[in-house]
Fold each of these.
Amino acid sequence: MPLGPVLVDGVPVEDATVPVADIAVQRGYGYFETIRSYRGVPFRLDQHLARLAVSAQRLGMPPPPLGDIAGWVLDRAGEGDCAVRVIVTGGVDADHPGGGSLTLVFAERLPTLPEAMRLLPVVAPWHPDGAWSGTTGAKTLSYAPNMEAKLAATVAGFDDAILIGRSGSVLEGPGASIAWIKGDRLAYPELELGVLDSITLSAVCQLAPPLGLRPTPGRYPLERMLEADEIMSLSTLRQVLPVVTVGDRLFDRGELTGRLLGAFEDLVVHERRVAGAV
């Protein structure tokens, strides 16, 4: 449930609705972002706004009003430690996406997360896996295949899935990125595979060199990832969570994963101070 009102094109609404004629409802057409607020300060809001603009462009929709959306996000971030969601619907004209679209901005409580993740590898034939299309890399509302993969994992007793491409490459989670440590390398799937350009992973890559780790994107089969010393799941809401199980393989939580999380938390505090927050 939202914390406080939903802003619909900037107007507070207690019981917000989306018209049934909107192609977001009829066809899952639209895009979104989720931004974490730390005591009222959104983390790397500019990067989330830039990704919104990319999603709009790849879906053939008009550029979003980023200045307005920034203000709306700051308003809803005032709820404190929370997740702020931005949803832009496709509108009511299927031939001209964006016509009559709505921008919804609202805050939600942070989810309860496990201390460590257990992941089930799931083959994802719907994923680009290096075969790009016009919408590759967009954060679209069409999440049914990803949600089904996560459901399959939870039914099997895991916390989430790790998607494996048709080529056998490790890709990402249904709603999170994946990275692992082997020796002095912080390895993760390259963007050319069509995985999300993760803001959290980008921050972690900045923090890795002082810890003696070299960020190393690439195309890695599952077998290579299973040789890792440590594995981590990363997202806006998860931050950096250790992975202790992949299928039937067990892993330690890992000292370096813990140090990366600590460095990330320090970065959040630093950026809050730069923003003028207490």
Amino acid sequence: MHLCTHKGYIDTLKLLFQLEPEYIETLIKGKTYEAKWTPLHIAASKGHLDCAQLILSLGVKNINITSRDGSTPLTSAIMRGHVDIIKYLLEQPNIDILTPTMFGFTPLISAASKAQNDIVELLLRDKDLVQNILYRDNDGSTALHHACQSIINNPIDTIKILLDKAKKVGLEEYVDCVDFSGSTPLLSSCWHDSEYLPAIVETLLNYGADPRKENKYGWCCLHVLSQQSCKYFIKKKKKKIHN
């Protein structure tokens, strides 16, 4: 069954269920030895929507079952960017969008770290919105921290989506939320050598981020940028502070 879902062999999968109906529940709950992925995890990760639909149609109750690293089928789909499966899973009445991985990554944090704008929009639904936005991983970082550190895709739209949603529910201070080291998203972004850094910094400042905020070690974004010899940023931040 794991191989069928991996390859997307929907007809073979249907045949297996017909031949051994009494073992359906056992097989669906079965996990692979290495990663402890169920067939639903595999279907979600590989983007086989028809396989995922078939598995869930058989009455699988624990749609939020986790693998060895704590990933749910929803997280598995997000990591591969399969929007159609993500939409389908989010339509299920018992889906949990706050289940974290072993690193504390919720589905929203995972999507934000990859700057997957369409997926972030889907996950920021009204239910659990505040808790979802404010959720912190094992280092205390929020989805906004992760978006600001993204180097895979341009994160500007993701950052704006998160901040606009936060503002809509009265979380104006979200732009300066801190992780366990006391670092704001602005300060966190400055540590990463990203081609998107100028736009990230400008966007955060436009949303009211405070460049003077220091972490627990007394570092603010100016310290980080000066250490990295980012003269352009130093000049811009000093001008912002004096104003």
Amino acid sequence: MTKIGYLGQPGSYSHQAASRLRPEAEHVPYPSFEDLVAAAESGEVTEAVLPLENSESGRIPDVHRLVVGMELFITGELLLDVSHCLVTCGPTVEAEIHSIFSHPQGFLQSSHFLKDRFPETTHKTRSDTATAVREVVESGDRHLAAIGSEFAAQHYGGTVLHKGISNRDDNITRFVIVSREAQTDPSHDMSSLIIQVGHEPGSLVKALAVFGSHDVNITKLETYMISERTELPTFYLDIGCGSEAENLIAAMREIEQHISYSKFLGSYRSDPARSGRNGFLKP
């Protein structure tokens, strides 16, 4: 059976993404992004799921740093709705709940609901929302609740007391699936890459102009902080066409004279859920 790795505990949002992307695979948890990427690079798992960015908080820094050096290719993406729920171990009287467990982001992203419905409860921080849900369900204590996903509640057998308690209803995390082999297909409508340009005036403008001259649309452009691995100005790009597109091939051939380094991260089919309204532009 195909193995796909993900970060965190079973029931996490990464586990949910892995289940959506590869429902028939064996899903294997890893404690850190470094361990997860290493497992995919070594072949311990066939693929890995990585959270790349969030519509509310932006890019995931730990993953963003790993992308520069990883020997893996992006082969797909998923825009996952991060919708928090209030979970208990069973049917519960709301007024009797005295403690709520979650990750700090879970509390922050559900602060309006908590202020309105549970202003006096104690907040107990856990390493992730899945761990919070598991502890509450396994405790059997109906005076406790957790903020987490409906997926986690189903995984651990909890009861969803309230759905959709997030402050925003458009909190979306973009996950990508990576593997050791790049994929090519005429249906691909997105590619991702990294480029480095010289540290001279106009270097980036000249490089980006090449894409425009070949009618290649850039849907995302982000800069890296200077480091040992990125000593020159370094940029991550999402491009609205697959690697087999003739205009992208021509652009990459011409751009070589304007950049010092490039790394192709993969070609894949974009998630149909992309929309300007959720912060993820269509190709």
Amino acid sequence: MLILSGFSDDRSFYCKKTSYLRVYGWVLSPAISYIKLVDKNNIEIKSYVNIENENIWNSFGNKGNKLCGWEIERTVENFNLEEVIINYFTDENNLIFSQNIKINFNLELENYLEKFEIIKFNKNIFLQDKIKEEMKRSNLNLIEYMFDKTKYFEWFNNVSYSTNYPAYCKEFSKDNYLHTKALQHYISIELLDLKEDDIYIDIASSQSVCPDIIKKYYTKNIYRQDLRYAEGINGEYIGSNGDNIPLENNSVTKIALHCSIEHFENNSDIGFLHEAFRILKKGGKIVITPLYMSLEPVIFTSPSIWNSKYKDSDSFPKFSQGYNLILDENMKQRQEKYFSSKSLIYEIIEPFKEKFDYTIFYIDEINDKILDKFPKFTFVLTKK
């Protein structure tokens, strides 16, 4: 895979095993029309870009209005990076620009990635029907979630995201993604069966408005936990890792994670479940939605942001053993982990069978275009 990108700082790296290259540089020109590359067989790769941003780096004064960045991704078979030739960078007037163009080789990254099996993306291992069949063959406790679309929209309109949480709406307005988040909130709230006397904690909460919704409509007793918050307990905010939460034993009744546990590195997802068992009262519930599943245990990762995504994070993520890697710069995540049926049983179901009862809910289809990104699987655990 070949990736070319424009950056303002040094985040370039090289991995010989995967033919993975990042070039960075800023080019002062009205626009970059194309970049020409030639592989070892002299086959031309031509990628057209036309990026103009009047607001990029105004600190550059007049030059800031013409500062251009570039990013192109192509997959090339039989690719030999040592023989790649960057021929030219051309603007719309056919003038050649090559200022600040660098190629860095990070052998430390190369050596680290060689410890893992790196595979190409294969959509067939993410097919819902096949995953569900495999889960049933594995005797996982799988139940259909009976989604009521009318009830959901009544709830959505009552919560009124646009009125009560306009900044959140703006952040997730693209491609109906607000409904993606709202569906997660709705499903977790319904499956938790929240009561007025419940003590709720939102794990990896970040900027989520779900705790606000729960506080307004269900229970006033809430916590929000995230490693980005100030360390310790500060009112309802808890700054900590998910596997080391500074709350008393048996102190909460309901827990939810929305699109988050897949990012827990170095088996801290397993550590979180141990911690959740400690802080939950008997009969307390955890809802994890979505539960990311695949036919094979895989982890998506974006190496270019490894050292910049989270504070206090190691430069190189410590991935769970037995998981293949899929390199994907577009997702901008250090880790997105997908369980297979086998790995879910091995890592969670069997080790925690004396601590939690569990159910995995699935949704096959919601016949509505604006609800097309629904959580296919949701994991519910109840403390014994």
